[in-house]
């Protein structure tokens, strides 16, 4: 689950940095190896510039165009009409028209100076109308005459409003060779990093063809080192096969890689190919290991020694040096010189230069040759887990001795915190177990499934658990197999009624099995059925059966769940089960579970706004999950930490934590609804509202598909808040009303776990439904106060103030808002405090107390700035700008940032054109839309920007048109 290759988010960070550099007026050069995706990222940056209504001139030269004079220049300027050229002097215009083949050539070639001056004057003229972006995808293929003109212009276009964006292929970390010279200063080079596993999974999921299993996507990612182009080549080869390879079969390798490898290894004979095959069978090797393997036979060694063949090593601990020739040294030397192998700094450890070379060497061997290589390595390797893997792969027939050795190695790997390796070894152990030992095979499958679940590999867990269910020879094993199938279902528990029925039938009256099944049925009632009362009852039964069985682990889990759901129900006895769970003696691994009592306590502390206690508990649990390799628990705990960080006003930290959680969830292919929701929470607080909306919508879709009634209403609440902040009050009411209905159907009384209350009231107020808003407030406020949810009660007080303001009681609204702001500040809830101040400023403005309104908004901006709550900060600065008309008074970058982030790309295009003075009819004609569409779009723009007229829009546009950040989304 590491980040190498492909740190999840590294490409996003790079793209965001490039986007911001371009927005600040700089130029950017993207480079990386072939297939890494420079063109894709350049395309995204170009689309963003077009969405901001910038002038974009684009060219994509290739190898053939490199021989055509002025081909790139012609591609860049071809979209420009002759009207643009008409402003140039006659010699300059004529030279450019000749290049564009719009007039015949009068002499042997266009005047080179006229061309340079004309191109420079043309770009400067375009920049006077707004930002200009020149994009060249394939800078290394630009023809020489075009390159000379681009370099000439680049030296003269600094701070002109013209930026250049290029992409090119670079090799071996040498950096960009061509594009930098085409770029005006300031220019930055961006090396495109490999794609993370989660990014690659998304890319491959968008392709035509059958979906690939998760384990195969992981192998493709490892083989291509995160290079998307190479991954697609491998997948095309997979699509061409009659069936997908098994877990132990080699991947197909692109033809070009096989040819390149054959070329580099020309002259190496059968003995050398055997050496390289041995190297391809193991992730870590040295010349010494390869010599030992070459000297070893393929007969299986005794399995009770640390090293199988001590005769292969001299008394000094080093492999013997051959008395004659040394084929291993010769082969290694040849492969190093050919760039097939590389050595580490001390020259001892070796590896293949690219994982695809490993795949090619392994794949071109026959099955018998691969088995022989594994046998030789099994005879000499000293690592117990590696030795077990090699010996298991060295044969095809059942062998109980090998199976037992691999099973023991699996348990040892699990004890050392390597559950993924343990699961793989247990799978191999089961595969080599003879049929007469069906019980042992079942036990090994169950152990492997449990290790896979611990590693977060739910796919392998289900695969092994299904095998165990088919082989189960005792009721206990039947039950355990089905428990693993249920737990591996992630949040998608709705279709497992038959599995539960089978499990209960096999469990009979066995207390331990019944305890665990009742606990899982409680989870199903909580997650999929949305029935809090059944959850409480099933958790109570689970705890009772667990006490009879002496199963403290299941007992504490059941008690923790009971306490959590009791809190949702608003039961006065809800704290009791948690106190009992925490009082029980328990193993540290139980105590640290993401469903255990400490995690539930942290969640309940969050509900009660005991944020310091919640954060400290989650930090300790995350450390435990990290050291123990608990992949699933880590995602759950990271998501819980996002909520705490946002509530505590640490939005920058929340963004970092949310990105890690989402990256890990996408890598696992699990918990996506939860991780997308948490990422949306972080984005809405500290990132970008458009991204928050997209992530919240994705969470809604995933939760809907999985019938996950925990995260569906949460995602709807967040989506509703984002819609309200974007100015679409009725869409917000729809989302929040749906969340409210789900919470009611689940019997949830506590207003905090599904936080629809204050946002629904404010959305109704924005929609003009003041009576309905007042009814919502009256419905919830008493419960919030009874349950000690003071933060939520004060948020409802803010909504009540807005209702008062709507009825004309402005003085009463101010008094109530000041109380809410003071209480929220005292509770340590910065975002709620800032929202109070925003509302207070709006009411003061309505009272015509402009100075008081400015003070409130300045205070709100200071609160949001300290919290790194950028979208909320934009809102405060927009209010300041609306009053003062001054970017400086509103704060650095205020107006441009808020301007761009408030609108969709389509709204931005229309707003810019209207801000430039175009009529609705003119905008409609240019965008091929109806005048009515333009009118409705402008209505939304006015609402989002808080303005009432075209004159205000034009005034705002004047201040933002040449702002340094002309604000793309963060």
Descriptive notes:
The protein is 65% helix and 4% strand. The protein is mainly α and 970 residues long. The strands form two sheets. It has a five-stranded parallel beta sheet with strand order 2-3-4-1-5, sandwiched between helices. It has a three-stranded antiparallel beta sheet with strand order 6-8-7. Helix 32 (651-668) runs antiparallel to helix 33 (672-686), helix 36 (729-745) runs antiparallel to helix 37 and helix 38 runs antiparallel to helix 39. The longest helix is centred in the middle third of the chain and has 19 residues, at 511-529. Mean pLDDT is 86; it is low at 1-6, 305-318, 892-898 and 961-970.
Major sheet summary line: 5 strands, parallel
Strand order of the largest sheet: 2-3-4-1-5
The chain-level structural class is: mainly alpha
**Overall 3D shape:** flat
The rounded distance between the terminal residues' Cα atoms is 28 Å
The strand count comes to 8
* Fraction of residues in β-strands: under 5%
Unreliable stretches = 1-6, 305-318, 892-898, 961-970
Query: Overall mean pLDDT score?
Result: 86
């Amino acid at each position: 689950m590491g980040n190498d290759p492909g740190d999840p988010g590294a490409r996003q960070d790079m793209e965001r940095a490039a986007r911001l550099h371009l927005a600040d007026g700089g130029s950017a050069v993207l480079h990386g190896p072939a297939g890494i995706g420079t063109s894709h990222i350049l395309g995204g940056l170009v689309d963003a510039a077009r969405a901001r209504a910038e002038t974009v001139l684009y060219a994509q030269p290739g190898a053939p165009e490199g021989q055509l004079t002025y081909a790139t220049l012609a591609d860049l300027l071809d979209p420009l009409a002759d009207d643009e050229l008409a402003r140039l002097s006659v010699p300059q215009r004529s030279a450019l028209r000749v290049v564009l083949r719009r007039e015949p050539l009068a002499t042997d070639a266009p005047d080179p100076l006229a061309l340079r001056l004309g191109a420079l004057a043309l770009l400067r003229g375009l920049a006077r109308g707004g930002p200009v972006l020149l994009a060249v995808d394939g800078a290394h293929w630009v023809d020489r005459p075009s390159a000379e003109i681009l370099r000439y212009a680049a030296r003269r276009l600094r701070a002109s409003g013209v930026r250049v964006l290029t992409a090119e292929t670079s090799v071996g970390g040498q950096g960009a060779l061509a594009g930098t010279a085409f770029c005006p200063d300031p220019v930055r080079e961006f090396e495109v990093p490999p794609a993370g596993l989660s990014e690659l999974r998304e890319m491959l999921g968008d392709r035509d063809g059958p979906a690939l299993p998760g384990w195969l996507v992981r192998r493709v990612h490892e083989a291509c080192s995160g290079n998307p182009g190479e991954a697609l080549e491998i997948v095309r080869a997979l699509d061409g096969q009659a069936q997908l390879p098994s877990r132990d079969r080699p991947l197909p390798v692109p033809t070009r890689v096989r040819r390149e490898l054959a070329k580099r290894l020309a002259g190496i004979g059968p003995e050398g190919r055997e050496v390289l095959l041995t190297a391809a069978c193991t992730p870590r090797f040295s010349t010494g290991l390869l010599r030992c393997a070459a000297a070893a036979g393929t007969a299986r060694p005794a399995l009770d020694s640390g090293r199988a063949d001590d005769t292969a090593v001299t008394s000094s601990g080093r492999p013997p040096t051959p008395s004659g020739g040394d084929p291993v040294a010769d082969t290694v030397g040849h492969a190093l010189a050919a760039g097939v192998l590389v050595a580490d700094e001390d020259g001892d450890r070796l590896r293949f230069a690219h994982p695809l070379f490993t795949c090619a060497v392994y794949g071109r061997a026959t099955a018998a040759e691969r088995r022989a290589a594994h046998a030789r390595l099994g005879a000499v390797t000293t690592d117990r887990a590696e030795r077990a893997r090699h010996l298991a792969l060295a044969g095809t027939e059942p062998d109980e001795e090998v199976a037992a050795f691999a099973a023991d190695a699996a348990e040892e790997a699990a004890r050392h915190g390597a559950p993924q390796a343990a699961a793989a070894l247990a799978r191999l152990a089961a595969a080599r177990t003879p049929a007469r030992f069906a019980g042992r095979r079942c036990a090994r499958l169950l152990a492997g499934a449990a290790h896979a679940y611990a590693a977060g590999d739910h796919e392998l867990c289900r695969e092994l658990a299904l095998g165990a269910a088919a082989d189960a020879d005792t009721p206990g094993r039947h039950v355990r197999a089905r428990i693993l199938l249920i737990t591996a279902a992630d949040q998608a528990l709705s279709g497992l009624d038959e599995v539960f029925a089978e499990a209960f039938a096999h469990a009979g009256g066995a207390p331990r099995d019944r305890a665990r099944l009742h606990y899982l049925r409680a989870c199903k009632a909580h997650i999929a059925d949305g029935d809090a009362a059944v959850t409480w009852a099933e958790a109570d039964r689970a705890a009772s059966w667990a006490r009879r069985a002496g199963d403290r682990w299941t007992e504490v889990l059941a008690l923790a769940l009971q306490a959590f759901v009791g809190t949702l129900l608003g039961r006065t006895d809800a704290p009791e089960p948690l106190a009992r769970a925490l009082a029980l003696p328990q193993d540290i691994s139980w105590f640290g579970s993401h469903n255990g009592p400490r995690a539930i306590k942290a969640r309940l502390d969050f509900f009660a706004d005991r944020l310091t206690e919640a954060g400290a508990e989650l930090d300790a649990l995350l450390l435990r999950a990290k050291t123990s390799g608990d992949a699933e628990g880590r995602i759950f705990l990271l998501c819980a930490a996002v909520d705490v960080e946002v509530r505590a006003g640490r939005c920058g930290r929340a963004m970092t934590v949310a990105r890690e959680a989402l990256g890990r969830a996408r890598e696992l292919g699990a918990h996506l609804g939860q991780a997308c929701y948490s990422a949306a929470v972080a984005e809405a607080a500290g990132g970008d509202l458009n991204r928050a909306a997209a992530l919240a919508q994705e969470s809604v879709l995933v939760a809907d598909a999985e019938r996950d009634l925990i995260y569906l209403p949460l995602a709807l609440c967040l989506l509703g808040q984002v819609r309200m902040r974007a100015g679409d009050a009725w869409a917000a009411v729809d989302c929040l009303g749906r969340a409210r209905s789900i919470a009611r159907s689940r019997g949830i009384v506590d207003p905090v776990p599904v936080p629809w209350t204050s946002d629904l009231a404010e959305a109704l107020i924005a929609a003009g439904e003041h009576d309905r808003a007042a009814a919502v407030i009256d419905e919830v406020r008493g419960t919030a106060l009874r349950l000690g949810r003071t933060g939520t009660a004060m948020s409802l007080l803010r909504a009540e103030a807005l209702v008062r303001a709507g009825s004309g009681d402005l003085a009463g609204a101010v008094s109530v808002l000041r109380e809410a702001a003071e209480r929220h500040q005292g509770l340590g809830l910065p975002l709620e405090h800032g929202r109070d101040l925003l509302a207070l400023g709006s009411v003061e403005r309505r009272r015509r107390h402009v100075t008081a309104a400015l003070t409130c908004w300045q205070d709100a901006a200071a609160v949001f700035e300290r919290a790194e709550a950028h979208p909320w900060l934009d809102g405060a600065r927009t209010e300041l700008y609306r009053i003062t008309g001054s970017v400086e008074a509103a704060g650095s970058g205020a107006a441009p940032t808020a301007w761009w982030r408030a609108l969709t790309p389509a709204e931005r295009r229309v707003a810019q054109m209207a801000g430039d003075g175009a009529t609705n009819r003119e905008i409609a004609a240019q965008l091929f839309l109806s005048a009515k569409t333009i009118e409705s779009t402008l209505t939304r723009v006015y609402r989002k920007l808080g303005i009432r007229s075209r004159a205000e829009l034009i005034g705002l546009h004047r201040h933002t048109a040449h702002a340094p950040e002309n604000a793309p989304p963060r």
